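About this split. The held-out portion is used to measure sequence recovery: a designer receives only the structure tokens and must propose an amino acid at every position. Recovery is the fraction of positions where the proposal matches the reference. Here is one held-out target exactly as it appears in the evaluation file.
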């Protein structure tokens, strides 16, 4: 297989053959965008080995194949996070090892080294982040097992590093939020942004993608159908996080009135223009400023979503009702927020007592 230089892009392309998974038919395709001829031909050679079930190749070479297979199947901002983990937490340890030679012992040694690392604040990594790192390495090996005939996944044979859920879920009570909102009221765009997140439970990316066309003030609803990301210095509008995330959220009257005022206050805004022309880092800064003034605990931007859900639980809404509003299944709501729901078992026992006495 010889690479050819693309006269339009100045980069190298190479044709390769692969076996179609469902039918086994051998097909031809082209991989584009390599910087050098050598890089293109090395990729094709390693891909050929992988197709034959020969994983006698360096881990770094298989990762190139994994990236090629997966990159177009994952949202771009999610992929950036994955690449950062692969490049900084995985490749330095495994890049020169052969895929077929990596053992359970290698995985345990790697886990021990990762758990010694510190973040920018010189603190150990959070258990949930450690689990994400562990899961990413496992995903690479799972891909090799499923599609390239690697015998087994060594990561799956040792205990996982980290934890799926944080020990403590942070959120604000209604009283804490009201103190905070009063503190940032001097900047109207900040006030409206936090109001919308607190009283609808929408995600930050969903907030930043909103346009006037998304609001129906006759029905007092807002349509959530897109998400905003800042990627490589460009504004990117994508689909929401999941299928369940596409939804219509009803607003309380006071919030609908506030959003009318917000849109009216933006000079020259059109129906398809973003309302909140701010960044996530701006909101982080405003969170810092407001919590200091108000004297309330610092939470993450995403924790406003937890605060909204907590508020609805305390108001007596069911997991199914809450899930529909925030774009989650009722199972996710129950599993994640079960500790916030009233003591259902005690209530059942009490009502059975009452039934018996009737």
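Reference sequence for scoring:
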């Amino acid at each position: 297989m010889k690479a050819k230089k693309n006269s339009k892009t100045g980069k190298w392309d190479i044709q390769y053959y692969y076996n179609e998974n469902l039918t086994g038919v051998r097909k031809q395709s082209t991989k584009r965008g390599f910087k050098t001829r050598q890089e293109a031909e090395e990729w094709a050679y390693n891909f050929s080995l992988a197709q034959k079930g020969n994983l006698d190749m360096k881990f770094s070479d298989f990762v190139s194949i994994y990236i090629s297979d997966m990159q177009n199947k994952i949202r771009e901002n999610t992929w950036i996070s994955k690449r950062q983990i692969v490049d900084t937490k995985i490749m330095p340890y495994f890049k020169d090892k052969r895929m077929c030679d990596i053992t359970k012992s290698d995985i345990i040694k790697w886990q021990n080294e990762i758990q010694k690392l510190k973040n920018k604040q010189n603190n150990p990594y959070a258990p949930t982040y450690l689990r994400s790192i562990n899961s990413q390495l496992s995903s690479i090996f799972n891909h090799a097992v499923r599609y390239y005939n690697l015998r087994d996944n060594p990561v799956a044979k040792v205990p996982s590093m980290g934890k799926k859920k944080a020990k403590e879920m942070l959120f604000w009570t209604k009283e804490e939020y009201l103190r905070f909102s009063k503190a940032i009221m001097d900047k109207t765009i900040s006030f409206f942004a936090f109001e919308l997140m607190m009283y609808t439970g929408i995600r930050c990316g969903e907030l930043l993608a909103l346009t006037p066309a998304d609001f129906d003030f006759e029905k007092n609803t807002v349509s959530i159908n897109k998400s905003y990301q800042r990627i490589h210095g460009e504004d990117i509008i994508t689909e929401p996080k999941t299928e369940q995330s596409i939804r219509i959220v009803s607003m309380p009257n006071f919030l609908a009135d506030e959003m009318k005022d917000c849109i009216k206050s933006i000079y020259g805004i059109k129906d398809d223009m973003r309302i909140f022309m701010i960044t996530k880092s701006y909101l982080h800064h405003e969170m810092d400023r407001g919590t200091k003034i108000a004297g309330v605990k610092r939470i993450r931007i995403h924790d406003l979503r937890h605060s909204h859900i907590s508020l609805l639980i305390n108001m007596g809404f069911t997991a199914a009702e809450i899930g529909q509003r925030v774009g989650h299944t009722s199972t996710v709501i129950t599993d994640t927020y079960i500790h916030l729901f009233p003591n259902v078992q005690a209530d059942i026992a009490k009502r059975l007592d009452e039934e018996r006495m009737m």
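Annotator remark: The beta strands are 4-5, 12-19, 26-34, 215-216, 221-224, 227-231, 234-238, 247-250.
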